[in-house]
Structure formats: structure tokens, C-alpha cells
């Protein structure tokens, strides 16, 4: 019985180390600077991603979507259909987002922006609540990736799961 108690204790101890050993995800102090590149094509692509993040996702100005998203936009998020109009409808009608003023500088907590060829990947700080253990908040990383062609996003990936 004593051995079983010791095993249970150490198992719980090890589990607590796994749950609480995470380092916090830290945002860049200047996320706007991450959306630039010396390479003209990569800079242009990063700027499209910048406006999608800031103008559309952060401030909900989906009336500007045609400036940054192609009509035939391919969506890999399982919650939104493909096509620019379908994505706009998802945010405006389903999620019922409300536009807010577009700030001079981005407020979104961005960790990194990587551009290669026609792809731009943006990693963000995502805060979550540990509902299974302590109820405390923790950070993890979220991402969006877009394929940019001719100055507009034509395809999108993220880590979304189906909404319940």
C-alpha cells in the first residue's frame, strides 16, 4: 500500500511538472517592424498579412477585405468556407464582430513573421485558461499562414479546430 501511495505521489508530481514547466510565450515589443523585409516581394507580401491581421482580424473592418483577400480565397480553417465573401460572412454574420478604429500601430501580440516565396506565417501569443487543473492562465502559440499572389491572400491555414 505504501509503495502504491509513493507511485501515485510521484506520478502526480511529474504531471504537475509537465503542466507547470512551460515558459511563457512572449510577444515582440514592436510587432509592426516584423512585417517588413528588404526584399521587395517579401515586404509586399508581409504588408498584405499585416493589414489582414490589423485591419481585418484585430479591428474587424471586413468591408476592406477586397483590398487584401482574393475573391477565390481558399480557406483551410474548418469553421469558414472558401471564398472571400464566405470568410467575410463568417466574421460579420456568424461571429458578429464589430469594427473598431484602426490604430496607427498594431495591438495584436505577435511573436514572429516569416516570409518565404509566396507564403507569410504569423505566430501570435495566445492566452488560454487551464480549465482541467488550476484555472490559471497560460500562454501558447497560435499561427496564421497565407499564400499571397499579386498583392492578395489567395489561401489560408491556421490551427483552428471545429467550433462546438
UniProtKB/TrEMBL annotation:
GO terms for biological process: polyketide metabolic process. Keywords: Signal. It comes from the Bacteria. Residues 1-21 form the signal peptide. Residues 61-156 form the SnoaL-like domain. The keyword Metal-binding does not apply. This is SnoaL-like domain-containing protein. InterPro entries: Cyclase_SnoaL-like, NTF2-like_dom_sf, SnoaL-like.
